[in-house]
Write a structure and sequence with these properties.
The protein has about 250 residues and is mostly helical. It is built from ten helices and no strands. It has two domains: about 35 residues; about 220 residues, Orthogonal Bundle (MetI-like fold), CATH 1.10.3720.10.
Length: about 250
């Protein structure tokens, strides 16, 4: 995409966002929507600035970041390992992949009482639940990405007498990168959602607890401020993954 076109896209996105926020501001100010349901975006922005200067947000963010990073790391290791196993052993993949997809499409978050019974109320339950949700899309996309490599690439590597490790690192992995990173984005996103959701339900700490606490206090401005921070974190994470994928693909091409 050309630089000028990219600037136009960014400008269009910013204009659409400002228009949306302006409409919300007008609806609330004109009393078409109750302030108990929705706060004006300007008031939410002021609350966000207030949160940035306080300790409550940073303490909650620290807990959520620790739980998410641990869950993301475990999900990446587990998902990558079993994704490679599924690729190498097609029988295992054929047997387990439909079950994993069926399990993944079900409302797995409802299993949180089981994890609370096993691990108790705290970070271990939150992390384990996030790993379950985050590792499945990673392992599925790793296996699908490696299996979808064009046979001509494999033949070319073998004709150059590439060993198994060199074949994997120089041929298989670069060709499967788009699919693998799609799995990483999905896996990390669902891991973050699981962390926030379990924190919200169990009131165990982090940004999820902050949202839950402000919800019960009818602190609408604080509620939407916390939600806005969560959306920003998710957007930054996806942007970081996209830039990492672009750098890796440039290095390999």
């Amino acid at each position: 995409m050309a630089v000028s076109e990219r600037i136009k896209v960014k400008a269009g996105q910013a204009a659409a966002l400002l228009l949306f926020l302006g409409v919300l501001e007008w609806l609330v100010r004109k009393r078409f929507v109750s302030v108990l349901v929705l706060s004006p975006p300007s008031a939410v922005a002021m609350k966000m600035l207030e949160d940035l200067q306080g300790r409550e947000l940073w303490t909650s963010l620290q807990v959520t970041a620790m739980e998410f990073l641990l869950a993301a790391l475990i999900s990446f290791v587990v998902g990558s390992f079993f994704g490679i196993v599924f690729f190498r052993f097609r029988i295992i993949r054929s047997a387990l992949e439909p079950l994993l997809l069926a399990f993944y499409s079900a409302p797995t978050i409802l299993l949180y009482p089981v994890f609370l019974t096993l691990f108790g109320l705290g970070s271990p339950a939150v992390v384990s639940m996030a790993v379950v949700l985050g590792s499945i899309p990673i392992m599925v996309n790793v296996s699908v990405g490696l299996a979808g490599v064009e046979p001509i690439f494999v033949k070319l590597g073998r004709s150059l007498n590439a060993g198994p490790w060199l074949m994997f690192r120089k041929v298989m992995l670069p060709a499967a990168t788009p699919t693998i990173f799609t799995g990483l984005r999905l896996g990390f996103t669902y891991a973050l959602v699981a962390v926030i959701a379990v924190e919200f339900i169990t009131f165990s700490g982090g940004l999820g607890k902050l949202v839950s606490w402000r919800y019960f206090l009818f602190d609408t401005e604080g509620l939407f401020s916390a939600i806005a921070f969560i959306i920003l974190i998710a957007s930054l994470m996806n942007r970081l993954l996209q830039r990492t994928e672009d750098r890796i693909r440039k290095r390999w091409t």
